[in-house]
Amino acid sequence: MIKKPFFGLGKSKLQYSGIKNIEGKDVKEIPPSTRITLMHKSPDGELGELVLSIGDEVRTGQKLNLREIGEEYLTSTATGTITDISHTTEYTGQTFTSVSIEAKPKDLWDDEFEKTGKDTAPENALTFLSCLPGISDLSSFIKTDNPLNTIIINGLDRDLLIATNQIIVKTEAEHLAEGIEYLKKITGVSRIILVVPPSLRMEAEKSGAEVKVIEPVYPDAIPGLLMKRILDNPVPPSKNFEDLGVAFISPEAVVALRTAFVEGKLPVTKVLTVIDKDNRLTCIKARIGTPVRDILSTLNIDVSHGDRLVFGGPMSGQGIYSEDMPILHDTDAIMVQDKSQVNPSGNDPCINCGECVRVCPAKIPVNMLIRLLENGLYEEAAQEYDLLSCVECGLCSYVCEMRIPISHYIMLGKHELPLTEGLEESND
Amino acid sequence: MTNQKLFVSSHAPYWHNKSSLSMKSYNIMLAALPAVIMGIYQYGPPALGVVALSVSTAMIWELIMNYVTKRPASIGDGNAAVIGLLLAMLLPASTPWWTVLIGTFLAIVVGKQIFGGIGCNPLNPALVSIAIILLSWKGLLDFDEALVNYDLGFYMVYPLAALKYLGTSVVSNYSVGDLLMGQYAGAIGSTFGLGLIIGGIYLILRGMIRWEISISFLAGVFVTAFFFNIADSEKYAGPLFHLLTGYTLIGAFFLATEDSSSPVNFIPMLIYGACAGFLTVLIRNIGAFVDGTVFAILMMNIANPLLDKIRPKALGKGIKHA
Ligand code: SF4
Ligand code: SF4
Prior knowledge:
The structure holds two protein chains of two kinds. By secondary structure, chain A is an alpha/beta fold. Chain A has helices at about 110-115, 120-130, 165-170, 175-185, 200-205, 225-230, 250-265, 290-300, 355-360, 365-375, 380-385, 395-400, 405-425, and strands at about 30, 35-40, 55-60, 65, 75, 80-90, 95-105, 150-155, 190-195, 210-215, 245-250, 270-275, 280-285, 310, 320, 335. The radius of gyration of chain A is 22 Å and the shape is globular. Chain B is about 60% helix and about 0% strand.
């Protein structure tokens, strides 16, 4: 935990972790687990009838269609038998369908992609590549109604203490270059920008992309801020990146594209940074769907009652409830926090100290915003106090003297806002 | 599942920079200590009595209000103690006990708790209290009258009062050194200029108060006094005199900077500070009161919500996309 400096005048400067902080040089392989769980983020609305059922045999790299209608699918990352299918809802309201597979030790590779999938037409990419490691939302790349003009490959990571993207740029520069060619073919976009910290400039220049070097100061590498910094094209609150013709992708996903097309197999492993209780970093490679428990035990990290497990980093990660939770295809890091490090949030009101206002990279009057959010005035919060400009960096909560869970209120506000607006429309 | 571990979960971030209100309160009190100790050293046990009574009764009022409003006890955050201490620093050593008691009541109950407690007070609680005392019992805060029984071996006249009634000829009675070292009559914790400046700089460097407010306040006082002085140096004292007398320094570093009643955006902070400084000198020079700091800051407290609307455009706002 980085404390406020003794001389606290001036902004806190939090640096992204560099590769140099990773223990050991190599990416450590986690042995395959006997139980793999795949999770699919369901879009809102009706859940149709599932076509998968318990007892089905699946192969590694096989595309598993979820429903009769619709195009949702998972890519199996193991060979074995489906033993369980369930639905869960997260505290953010997001629902997941999870499919558990009892894995056999030997992989049998599915050959559907090899036979039919190697075509780089966009529609085809959508039918196979949505679950590639490092991809969070492929559809944003291949939307026909609003053509993309720029793709940004973010060679810095989402949070402090994560080095996943950086290690890929460092170790797979050539594959990245090939992947970029495939990315251009699939999307038809010619402007590809690779953003890296100064230490990775050399590797980045091998990629053939337009290279932008930025200082690794948190939170400058968050997409919303990159838009302003490197494209000078900030996103208006009511719009998103795609509206401006820009999409973001991780270096890992680009390398995975290359692997898929060159080797004819859909990649099934994910690179992650594991952050232990003493903030030491280890870089690992594991099958997507491996339970967190297996990863931690391979690394000899003990967790006990009252500790905290997080997918992602200390500023913007998401808490998980169980060691049985599998890593997802877009999980960049697992953080373990000792119970002694867990900060309870406060119950007191804002004292208007202004720390949050000074630290906010989106220039939001957080001191006013929090007053409205605490009272559920979401629409006013969005109109008058810039709720929707927030890039979710978490710095306001990090510095709040009263330990108000500001980010939580903001997340809730963003979630509730469309619901309240919907209500009003239906009342009209 | 028998050995299922329970993990703590909450929304990000999972780190905190460990700052806290109690830390801030203790630091403010620490920064105020040099000036308070000097006051106690000069005026002896009565000054100590006022300080002790003020701090303790402020905390008691806070506790009573916690009880009445059925909220968890909040004296641990140190805010009530800070208010009590600041109030004592503004009072003369001769203040009777009942005035201190009423003073802390006015500060904690009327100035803070009625508005909903910490963070909700639109005005600086200590100043609310001192303003009411000033208006209700005028003689109590007339330092010359209050301290008539003291002779500490230096020129026992409150400089601003002397200036008001006798003109600039009195200015030469006080050297800058005297003013910095508190060698003149005044409130317990407001006269030791050097101590207040050191405390203020400490708070600024530690990021506990907003330097923009302190500096612009001092600049406001300086510039306004400078122009008055140029216009008529017979009638109006020079800027240095105004900077080092009355409540100017305690105002700049301890009063105007109170979190809840001051702005947080850059330009509003500058306007707030500068206007408070300007009003301070204006009231001193042509107003009815000897010292203008109290009412100047209170007036700007009132303007604060309006001022703080001047702020930078948030990310992505005000941009037209074709
Ligand atoms: S999380 Fe807080 S500091 Fe970060 S952009 Fe949003 S409001 Fe600003
Ligand atoms: S940091 Fe917390 S207490 Fe300070 S102004 Fe922001 S919300 Fe209020």
